[in-house]
Specification:
By secondary structure, the protein is mainly alpha-helical. The protein has a domain at 2-43 and 117-241. The protein has helices spanning 2-5, 11-40, 50-60, 98-116, 119-151, 156-200, 206-241; strands spanning 67-70, 78-80, 85-88. Strands 1-3-2 form a 3-stranded mixed sheet, with helices on one face. Helix 6 packs antiparallel against helix 7 (206-241). It starts with a helix and ends in a 5-residue tail after the last helix. Bound molecules: zinc ion. Zinc ion is lined by residues 106, 110, 187, 190.
Length: 246
């Protein structure tokens, strides 16, 4: 397995980043869970529930044809552009907490992005199906290529083939990285739209708005972690392959 762990001169740097990322991810997840829980118990000043707020935000943005549905689980809220539904989870659907309204307004932000024809959103819609396929195979293709490189190190042609196979794997993984790269600004933008609506329509008090911002920003940080993680995986694949043909 030497070929698998040998990352060359920058191996130490990779493991350092990996440990830092693990700690960062742990801190961010902990903070998000804490904030979500804390503000799930605080009722919004307006007394309005998440569904009412979403309907208000949709009509203010002149977005029609989007329906609100109840979906099981916690923090499973999402906007599905295929059937144009805003899916709200157990802790959001019909609930009037700050967390519920913030999360619902964020998902509604995605519906508004889709309907306003936001370029970044369109790009993600194109990349998403490709990335979902390449995320499953790219790492394995790279590993298989590197394995061939090492196993046939004495045979130049076969080893070279291994190098090329691993390069294909790395290119395929780049699509996954690209997906996370466009996802982060889309998520931040959806939160901005949500917070803007919360402020404009007065669903919450000023203090509550600050709390909602904390919750949505903490949730957005998990996408920053995902992006960093994808960058690190790409770095690892590049190190595994090495820059020289064997
Ligand atoms: Zn989102």
């Amino acid at each position: 397995m030497y070929w698998f762990y040998n990352l060359g001169d920058y191996g130490g740097l990779f493991y350092l980043f990996a440990i830092a990322l693990m700690i960062w991810s742990f801190i961010i997840q902990g903070r998000l869970n804490r904030l979500v829980k804390k503000y799930s118990d605080v009722r919004a000043a307006s007394g309005k529930d998440a569904n009412t707020c979403v309907r208000e935000m949709l009509s203010a943005n002149e977005v029609y044809g989007v329906t609100i549905q109840h979906t099981g689980g916690n923090m499973t809220d999402n906007y599905n552009p295929k059937n144009e539904t805003i899916n709200l989870s157990d802790t959001t659907y019909g609930k009037d907490s700050i967390t519920a309204i913030a999360v619902a307004a964020h998902e509604c932000g995605h519906a508004c992005q889709a309907h306003s024809g936001m370029l970044m959103y369109k790009i993600r819609q194109i990349i998403a199906p490709v990335a979902s396929v390449t995320s499953k195979i790219s790492v394995w293709i790279t590993i298989a290529g590197v394995f061939v490189m090492y196993a046939a190190s004495k045979n130049y042609e076969v080893s070279n083939l291994g190098y090329n196979i691993s390069t294909i794997g790395i290119v395929l993984y780049s699509v996954v990285f690209l997906f996370y790269l466009v996802t982060l600004p889309i998520e931040r933008n959806a939160s901005k739209r949500g917070l803007q609506a919360m402020k404009e329509f007065g669903w919450v008090s000023d203090d509550q708005l600050r709390a909602a911002k904390k919750v949505l920003w903490a949730a957005g940080d998990t996408y920053a972690v995902a992006l960093a993680s994808a960058a690190l995986t790409l770095f690892r694949l590049l190190l595994m392959r090495g820059s020289r043909r064997r």
